[in-house]
Design brief:
401 residues; alpha/beta; Helicase, Ruva Protein, domain 3; Arc Repressor Mutant, subunit A; 3 domains; five-stranded parallel sheet; three-stranded antiparallel sheet; globular; DNA-binding
DNA sequence: AGGTATTCACATGAAACTATTCTCTGAGTTAGG
DNA sequence: TAACTCAGAGAATAGTTTCATGTGAATACCTGT
């Protein structure tokens, strides 16, 4: 009986009409044929890179703007075009894109250079080699293939604050050196201030050109959403004012188009699950809530045990209080650790964990001074009431309390 | 009263340590000629 | 003698601990009126 039900469920699912026709168009990695509202920036990038077609040295470029302002998209789009022209004309030009933020991919000096060397067809083991060695084989590959390279370093700020500017310094130096192959660097960052902390030599070399991406306004986000929705959804599924509402939501805090797209996509999923033919305004509200909830649940389930214990301490201490302090949390954390028989971390470490939770947006931790009574973090949960109980039981399960 | 000095309770930084994963090297071992 | 095995040295990295130093403002402690 159950078997039958499951089977029909799948059959129904298959036949069910979805509001989506191509969900990919709403994903962050999707690169549309035309990029809206970034004409100026595209032009700038193109101007900078054009000389590379003729084998000339191009300026290193620094691109910055807040998240969801289309930096990566624009650069990728433009370099794709560049590469295709180069290919058509049989010019020796190669574009390499590296995301420095991806864990275990290019977030250290070794891994960055290894990644680049791999792009040039070298086999580099994930560890074991001296960094020097990796540099050497990267250089060798570079000089062997008489080609020009455009190297895009996305989220470059992450790289710097993890490992300093050593690698960047080396890279900019190669780009200045007169070897058979030219390399031009494009650094993408969403933190404008991060250049200030750079070695002056690196800074001047990297930001020979600077391109700024201002946030989109609500209208621009609307037209972007419309463009994507065109591909993503079937005709006529969008209810009145849906796009507008998504745009408004994203514009509310600094015009993040990525957020708007995610919202629209999740709203579509919500509508699908409810088996309705159109996406309504309520679906958006629901989607907004769902995104928030999923994020917290995800964090609660995937974080390492120690983090979970810290979070649990905060949650159980929060009951009926407005805010807590680091010392209190640590106290609860310590007794919890001995209760469930897990090694206790130092306060130093727990302090770091708390500030990581702050970054993730699970808690709000502000450093305050209580005068005579010291300086500490004022911690309060950012988890909505409705999700709290569920989060708590997830944590309880996970740490075997 | 007004001004200065203390003091608390952590924050923040840097360095060092630990454990794990991985490569490379060279000594010792094996098998075949 | 060539091929193979395997232990040991050396690297990179993540996650911590240890040590050192910093810090904002509520109080304590003056001082002169």
């Amino acid at each position: 009986m159950v078997e039958k039900d499951t089977e029909t469920f799948f059959e129904d699912f298959l036949r069910k009409k979805s509001v989506f026709s191509d969900k990919k168009a709403l994903q962050a990695s999707y690169i549309p044929e035309t990029v809206l509202h970034r004409e100026i920036q595209i032009k700038q990038v193109a101007n900078v890179l054009a000389p590379s077609l003729k084998g000339d040295k191009t300026s290193n470029t620094f691109v910055y703007g807040k998240t969801g302002t289309g930096k990566t998209l624009t650069v990728k789009h433009t370099t794709q075009k560049l590469a295709s022209v180069a290919e058509k004309e049989k010019l020796p030009l190669k574009v390499i894109y590296v995301n420095c933020k991806l864990k275990r991919s290019a977030d250290t000096e070794y891994r960055l250079i290894a990644q680049l060397a791999r792009e040039l067809g070298k086999e580099i083991p994930p560890t074991g080699l001296p960094t020097e060695e990796v540099y050497r084989s990267f250089f060798k590959a570079l000089n062997k293939q008489n080609q020009n390279y455009v190297i895009i370093l996305d989220e470059i700020d992450q790289l710097i604050n993890k490992m300093g500017d050593n690698a960047l310094y080396n890279l900019t130096r190669i780009s200045e050196e007169d070897t058979t192959s030219q390399i031009s660097l494009i650094g993408i960052s969403n933190d404008i201030m991060f250049v200030d902390g750079l070695d002056p030599r690196v800074r001047s070399s990297l930001s020979e050109e600077e391109i700024v991406f201002p946030p989109y306004n609500a209208l621009q986000i609307q037209s972007i959403l419309k463009q994507r929705a065109e591909f993503a959804f079937n005709k006529g599924v969008l209810g009145q004012g849906v796009i507008e509402k998504c745009a408004a939501y994203a514009a509310r805090d600094h015009g993040d188009a990525r957020r708007a797209m995610e919202l629209l996509r999740v709203a579509g999923e919500v509508a699908d699950r409810k088996n309705t033919k159109t996406i309504t305004l309520e679906d958006i509200d629901e989607a907004e809530e769902k995104i928030d909830r999923d994020r917290i649940m995800d964090i609660a389930t995937t974080q390492p045990k120690q983090y979970q214990v810290v979070l649990y301490s905060i949650i159980s201490l929060q009951r009926g209080r407005e805010s807590l302090f680091t010392g209190e949390v640590y106290g609860v954390y310590k007794s919890l650790c001995s209760k469930i028989n897990i090694s206790t971390l130092t306060q130093r470490r727990v302090s770091d964990i708390i500030s990581e939770f702050d970054m993730m947006g699970v808690v709000n931790a502000k450093v305050i001074s209580k005068g005579r009574y010291g300086r500490t973090r004022e911690i309060s949960l950012e988890i909505p009431e409705a999700t709290l109980q569920k989060t708590k039981s997830i944590l309880e399960d996970s740490i075997h309390i």
